[in-house]
Amino acid sequence: MTNMAPANPLNAQHRDSTTGLRTGSARRGRGEAREHAISHSHTTMEQALDKGLKAALAKATAGLSPIALTAAYADWALHLASAPGKQLQLMEKAAKKAARFGNYAALCASNPKTTETCIDPLPQDKRFRSENWQKWPYNLMYQAFLLNQQWWYNATTDVEGVTAQHEDVMTFAARQVLDVFSPSNYPLTNPDILEQTLHQGGMNLLRGWQNFIEDVSRAKAKQKPVGAEEFEVGRNVATSAGKVVFRNRLIELIQYAPTTDKVRPEPILIVPAWIMKYYILDLSEENSLVRFLTGQGFTVFMISWKNPDADDRDLGMDDYLSLGVMDALDAIEGITGEPDVHALGYCLGGTLLSIAAAAMARDGDARLKTLTLLAAQTDFTEAGELQLFINESQLTFLEDMMWDQGYLDTTQMAGAFQLLRSNDLIWSRIVHDYLMGKRTPMIDLMAWNADATRMPYRMHSEYLRRLFLNNDLAEGRYHVGDRPVTISDIRAPVFMVGTERDHVAPWHSVYKFNLLSDGDVTFVLASGGHNAGIVSEPGHPHRHYRIAEKDKDAPYQDPDRWVEGTEPVPGSWWPALAEWLAIRSGEPAAPPSLGSSEYPALCDAPGTYVYRE
């Protein structure tokens, strides 16, 4: 099949038909992506000394830069020390809180059941919901803790002169330190643990100790969490039938078998994030987006990313663009003979797909008929608490750690995400698994979450610097090839999904696509978080979503006003996506073959790359 797209730096390559690997001189759009990443082979002895020292230090600090933390502390402490008015305000708050707590304690002594608490936990704080916490003396313990936590929030915020980033770091750090001393974390101060210990004669603590030893042993042996072995790729997850029809050094392209007699002529290309294995969108049979879309009469292709190692240290964002999205589009066109494609990207894959769409629009490549972006950011000015770890000092520290090993390890990424939700992912687990002696049953989504991948040194450095730190894509400085790309060039209609409780890609950040786009955008706000809100199959209980279309000529509406004016719809948003795609597709016809003479089937789905540890 002759490529119908205009020749441009994004699709100049040739293919070795005997191996299925892309070869030759095609390295599209190196551009300015190399400016921040220093090649391992060109590092001077002096640079290597500095980098090696910081890499060794990073192993002891879990990748957090002590210099960055010290700078934040110094900024806050010096400005607070020079603000007597703020100090006086904090003393007044401390006195008022002490008086309020004293009054509460006195009233509790005489009438504990009807005494109104002096402070309530935040809505997301589930530590003190049990009725046992309303009994003396535990009510005094948790009230004192919450008042102390509130005072420290006052102390770390609204200090004039402190940068916003340093203020966020100090608030975060204070919360982490205080959470260590929460009365919910200790057997003698947690009434629920005491109740279970008395009821079970201490067997909960014995089981908890066994759970702890088992978890430590698995961590040292680099094994997956307890129960994850019940979910085996190709057996009960990632089981949709299909063939790997293309392979290069970075991806395998899976073409899924049709499940209907006729299919829409436009195939769907799914670009998942490479921070985890691809199959979150093809989990179990009942919650697989792949199965849902094929059941709606679509031909579906999916990229399965290789888990990189030290040899892939110099793969950059442009390699993920060229070897990933562009090679996949070429293969799909070669197999189906269809120049129009519905492209769908999730998380980091959605950001990459946005870059690809902008570059293709710039170069006159019109193969993307629609664009679907799931929890994907294009403007990173409100990228959530992940920005706590993004400044020049922290990135340099992280780059030196990756320089030493060639990649960012899975455990290092997991640690950062756990810190962001320490109550839910660290302390609640300690209480539940080790003090209550229980185990949360493993589900497919949790098992997938434990199947993490590494991140190449160059790519991760470029991604964090060019997007998170400098926000180049939103501000017109992101280069593909030798020219910048911009989201406003995209003319394909866009279906965009954000999720209400997303800590990775906050929906307000996802919504900013509306500020960058000059096209038609259908925005969906789904219930759930970054993963569970996307894996939201029809029939899933307690799901809802909001949806509204914005014409390219319509005025901008801020996200909070958008929510107020958009009524929730019960159920899954998946049928809304299928309907949106069907309206923009041709009449159903006979499905294409699995592979072609130019792109023969190499093996059965789920392929080989998904098994690489």
From TrEMBL:
<dbReference type="GO" id="GO:0042619">
    <property type="term" value="P:poly-hydroxybutyrate biosynthetic process"/>
</dbReference>
<dbReference type="GO" id="GO:0016746">
    <property type="term" value="F:acyltransferase activity"/>
</dbReference>
<feature type="domain" description="Poly-beta-hydroxybutyrate polymerase N-terminal">
    <location>
        <begin position="124"/>
        <end position="293"/>
    </location>
</feature>
<dbReference type="InterPro" id="IPR029058">
    <property type="entry name" value="AB_hydrolase_fold"/>
</dbReference>
<protein>
    <submittedName>
        <fullName>Polyhydroxyalkanoate synthase</fullName>
    </submittedName>
</protein>
<dbReference type="InterPro" id="IPR010941">
    <property type="entry name" value="PhaC_N"/>
</dbReference>
<dbReference type="Pfam" id="PF12551">
    <property type="entry name" value="PHBC_N"/>
</dbReference>
<dbReference type="InterPro" id="IPR022211">
    <property type="entry name" value="PHBC_N"/>
</dbReference>
<keyword id="KW-0012">Acyltransferase</keyword>
<feature type="domain" description="Poly-beta-hydroxybutyrate polymerase N-terminal">
    <location>
        <begin position="47"/>
        <end position="86"/>
    </location>
</feature>
<keyword id="KW-0808">Transferase</keyword>
<feature type="region of interest" description="Disordered">
    <location>
        <begin position="1"/>
        <end position="43"/>
    </location>
</feature>
<feature type="compositionally biased region" description="Basic and acidic residues">
    <location>
        <begin position="29"/>
        <end position="38"/>
    </location>
</feature>
<dbReference type="Pfam" id="PF07167">
    <property type="entry name" value="PhaC_N"/>
</dbReference>
<dbReference type="InterPro" id="IPR051321">
    <property type="entry name" value="PHA/PHB_synthase"/>
</dbReference>
